[in-house]
Amino acid sequence: MSKRFNVCLLILAAVLVSRFIAMAFFPFADTTEPRYAEIARLMAETGDWITPWFEPGIPFWGKPPLSFWAQAAAIKVFGISEFSLRFPSWLATLGMVWLVWRLARQFWSVQVAQWSCLVFATMALTYISAGAVMTDAFLALGTTLALVSFYLVMAGEGGPWRWSFFLGLVIGLLSKGPLAPVLIGIPIVLWLLLSWREATNNLRRLPWWRGSLLTALLVCPWYILAELKTPGFLDYFILGEHVRRFLDPGWAGDLYGSAHNQPEGMIWMFWLWASFPWGIVALVSLALAWFRGNRRGIVGKTISDPDVSFLLASALAPMLFFTLAGNTLWTYILPSLPFTAMLIGRWASQCESLWLCRMRGGAVALVPVLLTVFVGLAEAGWAPLKTEKELVSYYQQASNTDDSPLIYLNDLPFSARFYSNGNALEVTESGLGELLKNKPFQRLYVAVPRTWPDRKLVGLSMSVRKVMSNSRYQLLVIKGLPRDHQSVSGANGVRSNDI
Questions:
Q1: How far apart are CA 487 and CA 284, in angstroms?
Q2: What pTM was computed for the model?
Q3: According to the UniProt entry, where is the signal peptide (predicted)?
């Protein structure tokens, strides 16, 4: 057992370390990561820890600040880099891995616990989100902590677990809002309906009144301060993001992007993607057992075993909640995966045949190897990415103090905003003409879509010159008017407007 444990521990460490290393090499690709990274950068730059800012002057009401607090704090400690902004998500994933270990060991054995951790760490969404600037890892940490704490207390554990249930609520409420108690409450209610007699007395073990008061004291001050500082926040966040968004698939009220209009029930397909490859393997194995005539055993064992029924309810909660919602993303599945992994980990730990041993070994390696290869190809320039890191870096090295800021015509990508430290500008074609006339720049650096033909480039200016391009944009240099010409234009009534 000790040798097997050490081998599994080494494999798990290798998986987590591989993601840790990859965080520093993979650039931010539009749109999610650089958008949230820029919000965290602005928080660290301005020192405003109450209101996350989408851009200067525009508050970001879409999410509570916990993930931005963690990312801004990492910037303060490590400086601005991809690694520092992704590091908090990696730590949150590490916390979830430990919680999976703790609950699986409580249910079954060390061997099941180690396989549950391996399954969870090597699922597609877990592995990706562990090194990504997103809010979902913090929500999943909060829901996992609350649900694991709840069941451990129901099983007789005391001490800090009685209070960590409410800590999980706090983490969830400050990372995603009211969605957290919903995802925590659904599996608890379902499990209580199945195990009411055994669980009724145990519910008293949780300090409900004091814990709820503590939760309110830790959560409510930020919500109140956020509304006072930027009025309208509560209406947009509580009603818009948590009611209108999910009832209206084409909700047009999103201030920071666009609604994701998916077919109803698409969340179940997202589960297959998020749990890849383990979810597919588990479903195939379950189907084989079902058609071999073990139907009553599967259903009866699930209902009669309180451990299995709790894990199943916790794993299904996100899909049940989002089934009728059209505005969904595959990242919404993350709170399900720790509990899905424990159910699959129990099956994977029972290696009864050679083909099962080979299959589970391949499943452990599949996602980490694929993503590591992709990161390597991207770093070598063979895998095109939607990122402006290289273009912005070229501008920063080539431009002089008399040149214009980096200009993106008509559309400014989030990655350009982040990598330029908020200095890149979005300008329309007409605005570019005014800029050429009225601003005393030696040269203008303008990024336009790569698909623009040469005749359209020449239409911007006769002095246009292309200096580089990436997968989406080409960077142009346009000579500005001489400074003495600027003064003449100003004398003739052409005014210079601040950008």
A1: 75
A2: 0.90
A3: 1-24
